[in-house]
Design a protein that fits this description.
It is a single chain. This protein is an all-alpha fold. It is 70% helix and 0% strand.
């Protein structure tokens, strides 16, 4: 099916080459297959091709090309792409550093339930990067992100510790109000969000 141009089959075979599952690991073959699927608008393949460019796996390392593919995925509404575009704008890798743009892309991912986007948006509010410093918003978004994150335990522990540092800037009454807002957000979004 991959030979027939099926973008899903191309992406699945690319994953196998990238990870060395059932075939010898071959980043160059993976990148070729990701490109074929990415050019057909497959958002996951666009992110994977972006990661190949970012890390120089199977292609020459090129941060600007990575940003291009992440942006394509982000514009498809793919939260991982949106988060990664935010990260690039925050760091200035592959694109000019722009905290306002970083916040915009983190918010897009965050509002769709992406824990990484939520936590990163909270950090931007906490540090006043691209937005006015706002400890309530910082805690709200960081709390949502820390509560939903499924990444490795050490990442989640770091996020929870950081979230608790954000909480130290707030009064008990503010914390109660924000916790209620978080519960409402989770209730309203639980059926709408799916990680990707």
């Amino acid at each position: 099916a991959a030979d027939q141009g099926d973008k899903t089959a191309q992406t699945e075979l690319a994953d196998m080459y990238r990870d060395g599952q059932g075939v010898p690991q071959n980043y160059a073959k993976a990148a070729i297959l990701y490109r074929k699927a990415a050019e057909q608008g497959h958002a996951y393949a666009q992110v994977c091709l972006g990661q190949a460019y970012e890390n120089g796996q199977g292609v020459t390392q090129d941060s600007a090309e990575a940003a291009r593919w992440y942006l394509d995925a982000a514009n498809e509404g793919y939260t991982t792409g949106q988060f990664l575009v935010g990260l690039l704008y925050e760091s200035g890798e592959g694109v000019p550093q722009n905290y306002v743009e970083a916040v915009r892309w983190y918010r897009k991912a965050a509002e769709q339930g992406d824990a990484r986007g939520q936590f990163s948006l909270g950090a931007m509010y906490y540090n006043g990067l691209g937005v006015s410093k706002d400890y309530e918003e910082a805690y709200f978004w960081a709390n949502l992100g820390a509560a939903q994150d499924t990444r490795p335990p050490e990442v989640v522990r770091f996020e929870r510790k950081t979230r608790d540092e954000f909480a130290a800037k707030l009064t008990p009454a503010q914390l109660v109000k924000i916790q209620e807002r978080c519960h409402k957000w989770l209730e309203d979004h639980s059926a709408k969000t799916a990680p990707n």
